[in-house]
């Protein structure tokens, strides 16, 4: 059942009914171009209960500190209006203004007459609704902008704080604990969508001349004292003290894949009527300890409609595979584990199919010493290497499971690379050259994504 979260006090006027041409002209950010940051940094935290990665955004005046779940494929940043205090710098985006037209593609208008204006309830406001077929939830959002405070970086430390004016986002009457399967303590979603004018990365790079339209993610693993990072604008990236060199030299590059019709995957609160915001790469095969896993590789490319099938997601925690790929991976991993690592299989712990006693598995810098999984990617001979820390999940004392999940025979995409697999790797998404770079595990270099970035 579809449910609508728009409140009855909101009156929707469709665009053809509106005749007012807005006097509110989008103010360009030229005023900021004199200052010269090259990159910005956001801290990334992990919630161990929900397995969500989030950042805390300092927004508005006085500050609202909003915990926002990082959604790599999100078109918009979303907030729960009810948790956003009145801010003197908040401005609704007027309906049919240039900015409204540029950001929402097929918008509607909202008039809210219910009490004094506040975020989410203003007159003549740009709005849209989003329906997510997976959660069967329809969400109504109004578009507004406010000042956010972001730290610049040199790749090592957080440097100066900048006030970024006109940061646009959508806000709605949204209970984020019901948006995600496992609940959420967040007040929003931070969208980093590929083709979106409203992605955080795109907004920052269009406001600052020296900030390139690229960003990097470094997701922390559990129980770390320091935070991970999102870097916006590109490298260098440093992971001190153990990896003193610029980690962008570690990045293995593979093209971002954009197809027509668009690839198809819907993270929470995404709109289905806009071009895909997701980051797809071309995984050509999988190896275990250097040996090819045998399965029908057309599953990696085709689903009958010509879609590319490996998406990178920060909102899925465990990597999900098409059933045929999953079965082949488990079969070969179990065989390799028994013959070469003498690992002892124990019963399965759903959703995981292959579990082992950890008693005779050594611990190494890169996690449990289990067979190594390589993802072979387009355009590079060097694979995305997955060590025990990213492939195995501790389900209870002395039991480790292969942390991949069977997505069935008709999944939305054949492979969803999830957060657990991405932890402690540096991933760069370059929207200018349309490339994805990955470092494989920083643990291999005795570094990790959890870094102190204050001096
Ligand atoms: C809104 O204001 C209240 C009261 O001052 C404060 O407790 C709360 O943290 C503020 N909300 C945010 C998101 O910062
Ligand atoms: C926005 O789009 C509407 C409908 O196409 C159009 O009437 C309006 O003039 C546009 N606004 C601007 C500022 O271009
Ligand atoms: C992004 O903005 C540009 C210029 O404002 C506009 O031409 C383009 O259609 C927008 N793209 C999207 C996806 O909204
Ligand atoms: C993690 O999420 C759970 C469930 O939403 C919440 O109860 C808990 O407070 C969160 N923990 C932190 C540290 O935010
Ligand atoms: C890795 O780092 C730890 C401290 O975090 C240090 O004790 C250890 O000697 C380092 N190992 C290598 C091989 O550099």
UniProtKB/TrEMBL annotation:
GO terms for molecular function: aspartic-type endopeptidase activity. One of its GO terms (cellular component) is extracellular region. Its main location: secreted. It holds the Pfam family TAXi_C. It is found in: Secreted, Extracellular space. The keyword Metal-binding does not apply. One of its GO terms (biological process) is proteolysis. Residues 1-23 form the signal peptide. The keyword Cell inner membrane does not apply. Keywords: Secreted, Signal. Residues 53-439 form the Peptidase A1 domain. InterPro entries: Aspartic_peptidase_A1, PEPTIDASE_A1, Peptidase_aspartic_dom_sf, TAXi_C, TAXi_N. Coiled coil: none annotated. PANTHER family: ASPARTYL PROTEASE-RELATED (PTHR47965), BASIC 7S GLOBULIN-LIKE (PTHR47965:SF68). Belongs to the peptidase A1 family. This is Peptidase A1 domain-containing protein. The lineage of its organism: Eukaryota, Viridiplantae, Streptophyta, Embryophyta, Tracheophyta.
């Amino acid at each position: 059942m579809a449910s609508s979260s728009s409140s009855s006090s909101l009156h929707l006027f469709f665009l053809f009914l509106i005749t007012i041409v807005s006097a509110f002209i989008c103010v360009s950010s030229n005023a900021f171009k004199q200052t010269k940051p090259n990159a910005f940094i956001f801290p990334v935290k992990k919630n161990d209960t929900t397995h969500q990665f989030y950042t805390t955004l300092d927004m508005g005046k006085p500050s609202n500190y909003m915990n926002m779940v990082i959604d790599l494929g999100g078109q918009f940043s979303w907030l729960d209006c009810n948790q956003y205090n009145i801010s003197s710098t908040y401005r609704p985006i007027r309906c049919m203004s240039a900015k409204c037209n540029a950001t929402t593609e097929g918008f509607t208008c909202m008039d809210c007459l219910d009490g004094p204006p506040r975020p989410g309830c203003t007159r003549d406001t740009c709005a849209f609704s989003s329906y997510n077929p997976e959660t069967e939830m329809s969400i109504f959002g109004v578009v507004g902008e406010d000042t956010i405070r972001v730290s610049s970086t040199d790749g090592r430390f957080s440097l100066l704080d900048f006030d970024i004016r006109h940061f646009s986002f959508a806000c709605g009457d949204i209970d984020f604990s019901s948006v995600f399967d496992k609940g959420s303590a967040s007040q929003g979603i931070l969208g980093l969508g590929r083709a979106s004018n409203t992605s955080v990365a795109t907004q920052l790079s269009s406001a600052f001349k020296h900030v390139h339209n690229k960003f990097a993610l470094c997701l922390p693993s559990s129980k770390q004292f320091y935070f991970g990072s999102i870097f916006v604008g590109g490298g260098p990236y440093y992971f001190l003290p153990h990896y003193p060199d610029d980690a962008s030299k570690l990045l293995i590059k593979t093209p971002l894949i954009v197809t027509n019709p668009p690839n198809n995957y819907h993270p929470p609160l995404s709109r289905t009527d806009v071009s895909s915001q997701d980051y797809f790469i071309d995984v050509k095969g999988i190896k275990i300890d250097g040996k090819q896993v045998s399965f029908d590789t057309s599953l990696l490319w085709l689903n009958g409609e010509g879609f590319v099938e490996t998406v990178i997601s920060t909102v899925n925690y465990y990597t999900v595979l098409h059933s045929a790929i999953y079965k082949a991976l488990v079969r070969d991993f179990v065989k390799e584990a028994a013959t070469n690592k003498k690992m002892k299989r124990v019963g399965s712990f759903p959703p995981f199919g292959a579990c082992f006693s950890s008693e005779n598995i050594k611990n190494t810098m890169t996690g449990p010493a289990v067979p190594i999984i390589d993802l072979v990617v387009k355009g590079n001979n060097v694979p995305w290497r997955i060590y025990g820390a990213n492939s195995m999940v501790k389900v209870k004392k002395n039991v480790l499971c292969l942390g991949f999940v069977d997505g069935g025979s008709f999944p939305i995409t054949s492979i969803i690379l999830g957060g657990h697999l991405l932890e402690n790797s540096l991933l760069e998404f370059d929207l200018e050259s349309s490339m994805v770079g990955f470092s494989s595990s920083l643990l291999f270099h005795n570094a990790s994504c959890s870094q102190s970035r204050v001096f």
